[in-house]
Amino acid sequence: MSTVDSNKKVFNVIVLGSVNVGKTCLLNRLCEREFPLKTMPIDVLSRITFMEDKFIEIAFWDIAFHLHFRSTSQPYEKVHGVIFVYDVTNIKSFKELFLWIDEYRKFNSSNIPQIIIGNKCDLYKDKIVETERVRSFFKTCGVPFFETSAKTDNLSDPIEYVFQIFSLLMSTHEYEIEKEPLPSMMNWLSNLFERAAEGLNSWWIRNR
């Protein structure tokens, strides 16, 4: 992790999952403490908390919507934790979860903290993915599993509880090597937008 000063450590976390599983709403609940009435694509949100006698800042990066850059390893290499998200009302998003896990592990085999989140538990009448089967499977893999709702905490693991558990996992984890600090991820994001702009410019020239 990067150390901003002697009293605060910074962790980079990537959030992976298919489109419309509620990643943006989850991050807003985690970092802004609110459920957004309208959702807009976000790249990063951060939150500071106190853990293990230290202030830690966790930057949550949603890179999943940049589908045309998923073949590059760079965004997967500079992280300290991973959150995989699926929608409990959408079996397709659960099946695709394993594609996200395989893709991440293809580029990063380090044993950093990872958790699985089944989101949208407030839509219990539409729930398709069975809790116990998922919990049993990931328990054998040693990966913590939670079911949440970005909208309400009444019917699931509270968002704050999940955040505190994950923060503790990272703050107590012994990382094999020091990862690059937050600016390295910012550089990757800047390069991503530059490449996207170049692609759009080429398309416009070909089709004008």
From TrEMBL:
Keywords: Nucleotide-binding
Origin: domain of life: Eukaryota
Pfam families: Ras
SUPFAM superfamilies with a match to the protein in the record: P-loop containing nucleoside triphosphate hydrolases
MF (Gene Ontology): GTP binding; GTPase activity
InterPro entries: P-loop_NTPase, Small_GTP-bd, Small_GTPase
Recorded family membership: Belongs to the small GTPase superfamily. Rab family.
Protein name from the UniProt record: GTP-binding protein
Species, as recorded: Oedothorax gibbosus
Lineage, highest ranks first: Eukaryota, Metazoa, Ecdysozoa, Arthropoda, Chelicerata
